[in-house]
Write a structure and sequence with these properties.
mainly beta, three-stranded antiparallel beta sheet
Length: about 45
């Protein structure tokens, strides 16, 4: 089973959220949360 991580990164005042702009299709040009796949040697922590 493949796992995924999603990180929500806020500034110190908790009023801004870091987002990534997608560079590939689908949804190219739209914003997305920072994240990625968990590799087989990683625990997800």
């Amino acid at each position: 089973m493949q796992g995924y991580n999603v990180l929500m990164i806020y500034n110190k005042d908790m009023n801004q959220l870091l987002m990534c702009k997608r560079l590939k299709n689908p949804y190219k040009g739209l914003s997305n949360l920072v994240g990625g796949k968990i590799e087989s040697v990683e625990t997800g922590r």
